[in-house]
Amino acid sequence: MTDWSWVAYTVLEVLIAISCFLGNALVVCAVCIGIRDSLREPTFCFLVSLAVADFLASVLSLLAISVDRYLRLHIPLRYKALATQRRTWMAVSVCWTLSCILGFTPLFGWRNYSSLTSDFTNTSSSSSISPPCTFLSVISLPFMVYFNFLGCVMAPLLVMTLLYTQIFRSLQGRLKESCPQAQASLLREKRLACSLALVLILFAGCWIPLHLMNCLLLFQGPRAVTRGTLYTGILLSHANSAVNPVVYACRIPKIQQAYSQIWRRFIVRLNCCHGDKQVCQSIKGSRANHIETCGSGGKSTP
């Protein structure tokens, strides 16, 4: 890659990192602050976990979300008793623990460090050139293909595809058989399932190209993929973490409302900092009315 290509790649990585941080931080704030009692709902707990995991790209949070929606639809009478807040956070903890264990696997020996060190030791006496500091010079391609891609990505994706297929089949059948009063709730459930399935599709579309490049590198050698193509795949995989907050904003009404509420509060704070006392007083009055209204209202499903 030429010098300008490296500059463009670095700038894009920085922009993606900033977008990822700000977008997923907004998701966490929206769910934890903007949506009342949201953390009592398993789906929103897993969305927070996914937003935090987007800094690490965890597929297990996506799997937990699909299992949650499947259980909610297929055992509705037992769902609330089964999906308690304690069990939900236990599931989140299991996802993070497994992600850490799987991510630390190269530290347990499945890496290129030993061969790299021996090669460098053999050549150090005749040359002062240091070994290359790149991802694939340390992480082995068999690990990336057999363990990471096939075991940790494709296997969960296959399970999630089967779960969402069953979810949409069940919803379609119930919509045909249900009365008009029940259809409104089922349509909300279908809309949320479509939104979460879209997150899954975007994950697959952003990450699978890079994994397929790793397969080509393993089976056909380093000339099978150009460096520019490889770094484009890396950018695409990183961009996935910045896309999810946009999907939530466009597809999930509760998060839309929470985003709007957060932005209104932010603008009000800016006005307050500039001494606009009338705006502050009007907002305080509206906020008090909102709290009083929420206190007299009921809960709703996600």
From TrEMBL:
GO function term, MF aspect, one: G protein-coupled adenosine receptor activity
Stored Pfam families: 7tm_1
Matching SUPFAM superfamilies: Family A G protein-coupled receptor-like
Keywords, in A-Z order: Cell membrane, G-protein coupled receptor, Glycoprotein, Membrane, Receptor, Transducer, Transmembrane, Transmembrane helix
Localisation per UniProt entry: Cell membrane
Main location as per UniProt: membrane
Domain G-protein coupled receptors family 1 profile: 57-248
Cellular component aspect of the GO annotation: dendrite; plasma membrane; synapse
Family from the record: Belongs to the G-protein coupled receptor 1 family.
Protein name according to UniProt: G-protein coupled receptors family 1 profile domain-containing protein
Provenance organism: Champsocephalus esox
Classification of source organism: Eukaryota, Metazoa, Chordata, Craniata, Vertebrata
